[in-house]
Amino acid sequence: MRPRLALRPVTRPAVRRLGAAVAVPLLLVGAACAPTEDADDTATEADPSASADAAADPAACAADAVMEPGTLTIGTDSPAYEPWFTDNDPTTGEGFESALAYEVADRLGFAEDAVSWVKVPFNTSYKPGPKEFDFDINQISITPERAERVDFSSGYYSAAQAVIALDGNPAAEATSIEDLKGLRLGAQTGTTSLTAIRDVIQPDGETAVFEDTNAAKQAMMNDQIDALLADLPTAFYITAVEIPKASIIGQFQPETGDQEEFGMLFEKGSPLVACVDAALAEMTEDGTLADLEQEWLSDTVGVPELR
After folding, report:
1. Strand order in the sheet with 150-152
2. Euclidean distance between CA atoms 126 and 123, whole angstroms
3. Entry pTM
């Protein structure tokens, strides 16, 4: 078993805004965090036993669908970045994905003190085989390749790719995809951002690959790369809070126009998928999901589109 993150009972606070400076667009455009991997022959078929009728009541559905009776085990990576989480602590109920996870847990019938968090490195979450969590939430994009190895919930958020550069760097003058080709670009390993560099931008030089976003940010600060790519909400937080001397020079979506969405990730065949989908459907219908997006990932405009 991986070591569990320290869990403490929390009272979910009223959701707070990041503020206009950290506001994040709700653009239903390109992808944020998913590579494409080859399918693995060890993947199994999804369990069809969870019917729509059984999932009509998410709490009744989930009672016998979790690993440990009475406990909902949720995975995410560490560091857990803002605005998805706050203070690198998923247990607070603050940040879009933390707040979303606790709202889903509540609808599944699990009180806050019945939620347990485990650390799951991003690159291992979508590997085939048994999982040590009921679901993982970590800006993991849904792709056909991953869906052969693991199961996903319905999508809960979509975001564009964003290009970040320090003010004064030649990258800050880029106005098109073509302008990015001659630059030193980097992104976190295992993300759609990295895939977008290689497949969409197709730079002239070698792409820098980093273990996490912190390493990529430091490389940009050290002039080891000209620009880094990240999902748009993360890019807004980086430029508004962490590196004010950096700017988002543009955003873009896949050339196909296909929409990639973040989904909660499950072990292949997990009966909990139908339960979570029912909870997300409730949240969509009653406006809760939109409210969480508005509070944590507020609207903004003005990021140019790179073509």
Report:
1. 115-119, 72-76, 135-136, 265-267, 150-152
2. 7
3. 0.72
Q: What is the pLDDT of residues 229-248, one digit of tens each?
A: 998 989 999 999 999 999 99
Span 18-45, pLDDT tens digits: 433 343 333 333 333 443 343 333 333 4
Gyration radius from the chain CA atoms: 19
DSSP letters spanning 101-144 = HHHHHHHTT--GGGEEEEE--HHHHTSSS--SSSEE-SS-B--H
CA-closest candidate to residue 59, choices 269, 288, 282:
282
Q: Quick check: helix, strand or coil at residue 262?
A: strand
Cα gap 212→191, rounded to integer Å: 10
Cα separation values, 52 from 153, 196, 271, Å: 14, 36, 11
Residue 305, strand partner residues? 251
Q: Nearest CA to 214 among 242, 172, 194?
A: 242
Q: Which domains does the chain have, with CATH numbers?
A: 33-38+52-158+259-296 (3.40.190.10), 161-252 (3.40.190.10)
83 upstream amide cis, omega within 30 of 0: yes
The type of residue at 291 is D
Query: What token pair was written down for 4?
Result: 């569990």
